[in-house]
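Incident review: delayed structure delivery

Summary: a single-chain prediction request sat in the queue longer than the usual turnaround. Root cause was a stuck worker, restarted by the on-call engineer. No data loss occurred. The affected request and its eventual output are reproduced below so the record is complete for anyone auditing the incident later.

Affected input:
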Amino acid sequence: MKSIKMIAGFLTCLMLLGWSYEEAFAESAWASKCSSYGEIKPNQNPAFQHMNCLLTNAALEAKIPPEVVKAVASKENGSWKQFDENGQPIISKDNGIGLMQITNQAGYDQEKLKYDINYNIEAGVEILRSMYQRKDLPKINKQGPEVIENWYFPVMAYNGTKPVNSPLYQSSGSKNIDAYQEKVFAFIEKDSYLNSTTLGQFPFHTSDFEYDPNSSDNIVFKKMEYALTGQLHTSAYQFQKGDKVLITEDAVKLRSLPSTSSVAKALSKNTTLIIEGNFVYDQSLTSVNQFVWYPVKTEDQKLAGYISSAYMTKKLDVPTGKVMWGKTELKLGQIGKVTILSNTNLVKMESDGSLTTVRTLKKGEEYRVYNYKSNHGGLYGVGGGNYVQKSTKVKYETPSKSKLALLAQ
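Output delivered after worker restart:
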């Protein structure tokens, strides 16, 4: 890694997110989740699956897709090792330290970076998260940190927003496959998805970037927001019990145990599976698989076992064309809705302006509002000439801009 923000700046970003100092540095919270592998011995590298567990949980604690953190670790240190064969800290020619190749900076304890694996991982994850919070880097329109593709520019910044990492060659406009972030994303596809998934591509143009290819000055980004037309990918580590997922390849093996050496049955592409519990790591400590295993069952419940996260994608509901807002469908002409907080009356306005009760509305019910009248203390028109009186027994809300935008599509 070639560049780093000072730790004070990172803490400021965390405070803006509502995270506390204790949360930011709660190493024991994530590292302790790997305690079943035993203690890390001084000057020795943990087993690969132990390291897999540490990188995964440090990423989840920092709200970064583990796929991204693991790929950065692979680009920085392909063997995922902190120490060489002599038990000495791995230090690169440009002074990058350890697993995450943290460049020598005053904001971190240099000795701990060399000898404390958890501290080295934590520092790398903190720096990567701080890159996501930068305001001078582009983002994908309306997407958050759970989307893997949205880490393209923060990953670039982890190494440096220099001309060498420009997504396109300025002279030809061709893709720069040697850019740091391109290599990291290639690791994601190879190791986390076993080449069964292609991540979304940015529609780059040379006009998006301004820089002198013969200078070491940082790239100036002229376009700050992108809309990707292809499928985006959220982390496979977010699947929950009961979620439905689809198999992405043909002849994917359903294993009897979370290991490639266990008994297997082949499943066809697009088979629907139901997640049965939390993911687990490979049972073989020597396994160099970066993916995790999920306990699953088939929809007909005839088969059950473990599937690699590399071959699963979240099953999406079939679009209905409806825009749901809470319990009700949002309709054209609707200006809001009322939620009944405690039993109240549905009323009708007579020709003389008086109100008569139609029926009782029950707590928890929701009704569309199409107009509002100020008489009788306020009346919400819910259609058919009926009204709900404004009071503490009801809550009125207006639809968000995003909901209205969906309705307009």
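Verification: The chain has three domains: 1-230, 239-314, 324-408.
Action items: add queue-age alerting; document worker restart procedure.
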